[in-house]
Amino acid sequence: MHRIAGHEPTYTPKKGIPTVIIVLLAINVIIYAVRFVLPAGLHEGLIRFFAVVPGRVASTDPDNIMALGHELLTFITHAFLHGDFGHIGFNCLWLLVFGTMMASRFRVETASGLIVFLSFYLTAAVFCGIVFVFASLGENVLLIGASGALSALMAGGVRIGFKRFAHLGPMPAPPLPILDRRVVGVSLVYILLNLSLVTPLGGLVFMTDQPGNVAWEVHIAGFLFGLVTMPFFDSLAGNATRRGML
């Protein structure tokens, strides 16, 4: 690609679902399908092994490199585990919508864009795992599911106005200000919906008969992470820097 007379070439995102999203969907579905070929006891053991367990994290001997490495790994692996069909179905739909949106924004068809997208997604998963550990310190509960990282993708979508690739002239428009009324409005609604899980209405909001099992604090943490850090990752993808703004 060449620059001529100081003009930036217009970027046109590819149509369809980005390959990285298809791969992530496939990984999630394949891991979930394993439960149907393994004995129940073994499957439950593997889920516990790769989930974030605050009590186990807190009791890990820092001098035990193997154990410490395993616990650190769970801050990523938990995002690829799901409890039931509804859980994985909803998360796959969420990934398809918001993952495609942000993958397009970060230009995942390029090596640098792919690295930025995966960094954003996985860093959000790690951050959510850390928040869960501190929120449930010492408890023998499990955190599984990609909801936290997906909340970050959704927040990124909010910052670009829920567009696959928002343009301003030949280059993408900068993210909406975090205090933009649209950003604030959507953020408040999402946070309040998740806070409803601590009320009797929570089950109706998230269509579950076990609202207490939904990690609402992880959803909120992931969303706030995405809301705040999206411009930084956007600049790494070459969007803000090319426009000379953050």
UniProtKB/TrEMBL annotation:
Residues 70-230 form the Peptidase S54 rhomboid domain. GO terms for biological process: proteolysis. It is a multi-pass membrane protein. The chain crosses the membrane at residues 20-38, 85-103, 115-135, 141-162, 183-206, 218-237. The keyword Chloroplast does not apply. Signal peptide: none annotated. This is Rhomboid family intramembrane serine protease. It comes from Aquisalinus luteolus.
